[in-house]
Amino acid sequence: MSAPCIFCDIAAGRSPARVEHATERVLVFHDIHPQSRVHLLIVPREHIPTVLDLGPQHGPLLVEMVAVARALVERLGIGGAYRLVFHGGRFQLVPHVHWHLLAP
User: Fold this and answer.
1) Which of 21, 39, 58, 100 is flagged as catalytic?
2) Among residues 54, 80, 91, 99, which is most buried (max CB within 10 A)?
3) Is 100 considered catalytic here?
4) Residue 33 placed within a domain
5) How many domains does the chain have?
């Protein structure tokens, strides 16, 4: 049996989070240890452990994640300075694919 995934628990409503945006396939919530004024996590509801586990079948999901990120950048007015980051290997602390959207 695999270890529980906190992002899956958040997506299922079993763990709390400050949700910023939600669609059927993507959830966006505030990082609990923000590194900047804006620090959001863009997370697929489907459990995908790492970026290396993404395949061609995830194309539509990634397109939706980009669209969500773009909408957030526009809505938050951070188009002049933001980062959209994947972490992998030892830099990925939660084994569930996610982007960090950060802005000063």
Assistant:
1) 100
2) 99
3) yes
4) yes
5) 1
